[in-house]
Prior knowledge:
By secondary structure, the protein is α+β, with helices and mostly antiparallel strands. It is 32% helix and 38% strand. The protein starts with a strand and ends with a helix.
Amino acid sequence: MTVKGRVKWVENMQFVGSLEDGGCSIILGDGGISPMKLLLLSVAGCTAYDVVMILKKMREPIEGLEVEISGERREEYPKVYTRVHIHYKIYGKVKEDKAKRAIELSQN
């Protein structure tokens, strides 16, 4: 499956990103979120989606999920992430071993 998108420069340091399939648009830079912060949130969103899907397939009674994420970046350019920490909060009577397995499957 191919996903296509586009980022268009608007003015100054503001850009608008959108997907070709008509999904929502997002403002990047001035007046919006920085691309690097969006990358961090994207990682959290992907793993959250995975964990919920996996636990549902395991028929675990998940009632809620929060994913907290933090990233450390280099001071010099390129200011890439050098370390990322993810903390999961799973709500419901989910078995601990099943939760750990779902997180492991998502991360690997």
